[in-house]
Amino acid sequence: MAAPPELVVNAYSTGWLKRGFPWVYPAEVVRGTAAPGTVVRLRGEGGTALGVGIADRGWISVRRFRQDDGPVDAPLIAARVAAALRRRGNLGPDTTAYRLVNAENDDLPGIRVDVWGRVVVVAIDSPSLRALGEAAGLAAGDLLGGIDAVWLSERRDPRDVERAAAAPRCIFGDATLLDVVVHELGLAFEVRPPLGKDAGLFTDMRDNRAWMAGHWKDTRVLNLFAHTGAFSVSARHGGAGQVVSVDLSEGYLTRARRNFDLNELDPGELLAEDCFKVLDRFRRQGRRFDRVVVDPPGYSHSDAGTWQGERDWARLAAASLRVLEPGGWLIAASNLGTQSPKQFGGALQEGAERAGRELRLCHEGTPGVDHPAALHFPESRYLKFWVMEAGDVA
Ligand SMILES: C[S@@+](CC[C@H](N)C(=O)[O-])C[C@H]1O[C@@H](n2cnc3c(N)ncnc32)[C@H](O)[C@@H]1O
Hints:
Strand content: 25-35%
CATH class of the largest domain: Alpha Beta
CATH superfamily of the largest domain: Vaccinia Virus protein VP39
Structural class: alpha/beta
Helix content: 25-40%
Number of helices: 9
Bound molecules: S-adenosylmethionine
CATH topology of the largest domain: Rossmann fold
CATH architecture of the largest domain: 3-Layer(aba) Sandwich
């Protein structure tokens, strides 16, 4: 068999690859080309061997899969999936939805594997990873055993302007099994696994829901950007007296109602409206809450306007604080990887000043053991989850 083609990278990339960073960008390749999906050897300009990866086109040129010279094949992928499973330890019999492989952070660049009960979903960042993604999904199915279906889906990175993602494809088992019920911390949620990150439950928030579980009793809760209601269901289960869930999407709120029903809990108020509109109305009506959960997306657009996380956090924090009782908690989450904790804190402080309130950080959460973050891959630390007590109105 012919040796894999070689790509030579510049000194800057050599330094990063030696530190464990798994990507090579187009501007860092000084010599050599390879078609997307091809296995390539990496070398520094001085001849240092830097491992083996998969070539791509677009905003990444190579994802490195190993630092030595060995093959990138199904046995390697299966060994990495097995290591990832060991790394998860015991998530407990109560938890049947989790991330089994967190891409670069589990040494499988561009490949995520999620487990939803007896369904496995692999999401790949590029079509160049199709063969390895399939290998990861089938290995996960074998290791876990008793799996009904394995799906392969493609994520389209916003930086990947040229290509659209292909539709999810069932690569093993029963393709008709679309909605499944999963369990987390003693609660049931209905999810649709082939929808990938839109499946209906954000497993990177599990530990944060767990931390909050003992802090809902007899509170009035306003859950903004409620999605399918995971925080709302947890709050009601934890003894919240009043729960108001707000989301732009009627469809997500229908799924939230279903989640309340599954757990035989009263859904309270489900409002299909823009959060800012609701906050303004509640402020004028004098409605107040003891817990306000704000977990927005990076960007959204509706008739009421555009939400842009990079720009609008101070406005959102100020509006939320205006309906929060003194001593109440603002529970704020941001999943914008480009926003540092310092910038997040700065925006929240600005919002607090606008509302004439003081905020005190009481707890900071992380995404949990099934979403490890490799320190040699700084891009992975996207989540900020801050629980803050609000002081009196000035
Ligand atoms: C990141 S998800 C929230 C996840 C949720 N907190 C959970 O734990 O499942 C973002 C949600 O915000 C909703 N959304 C986006 N912009 C909105 C707006 N201006 N007002 C209300 N909801 C909005 C979307 O429909 C989506 O369901």
